[in-house]
Design a protein that fits this description.
Layout: E1 2-8, E2 11-17, H1 23-30, E3 49-52, E4 55-58, H2 64-67, E5 71-73, H3 86-93, H4 103-117, H5 123-129, H6 141-154
Parallel strand pairs: 1-5
Antiparallel strand pairs: 1-2, 3-4, 3-5
Helix pairs in contact: 3-6, 4-6
């Protein structure tokens, strides 16, 4: 067992893990943060996307020991209390979710996209950069619409969690 210390959603968390424990398993099983989903076990679907040191990462492709010493943001850390993060609010307003299974990964990917591109994000960019996130319920139209709305509302500044 290896001791890991990871700052998760602004709080320092420690735990003992086997060296082969994936970050997604640590988040879900050790910390009870079940908003990060495991959808495919092959890193294809993007349901497990979190931010590690400010960048979108598929948490099923990273070991918990690799994240030790890093800052991790999960879907649970985006909202400011009862106030939704702007991307979460845009998904709600523009009906960018169906069953909701892929939504946390989509939102985390969208926040990363907007942080990198701001209001210059285009529909083509969004569709291209969502390539690693699979939604089996929809044709992505409302997801793209929600991301573009959030990007337009954000302007050039970052819309990271508070």
């Amino acid at each position: 067992m290896t001791e890991v210390t990871i700052k998760v959603n602004g709080r320092e968390m420690k735990g003992s893990v086997e060296d082969r424990t994936l970050l997604v398993e640590f988040l879900r099983d050790n910390l009870g943060l079940t908003g990060t989903h495991v959808g495919c076990d092959t890193s294809q679907c993007g349901a497990c996307v979190v931010h590690v040191d400010g960048k979108a990462v598929k948490s099923c492709t990273m070991l918990a020991v690799q994240a030790s010493g890093s800052e991790v943001m999960t879907i649970e850390g985006l909202a400011n209390g009862t106030e939704l993060h702007p991307v979460q609010a845009a998904f709600r307003e523009h009906h960018g979710l169906q069953c909701g299974f892929c939504t946390p990964g989509m939102i985390m990917t969208a926040v990363d996209m907007i942080n990198r591109h701001g209001s210059s994000l285009t529909e083509h960019d969004v569709r291209e950069q969502l390539d690693g996130n699979i939604c089996r319920c929809t044709g992505y139209h409302n997801i793209v619409k929600a991301i573009l709305a959030a990007a337009g509302a954000s302007g050039p500044q970052q819309i990271a969690a508070e």
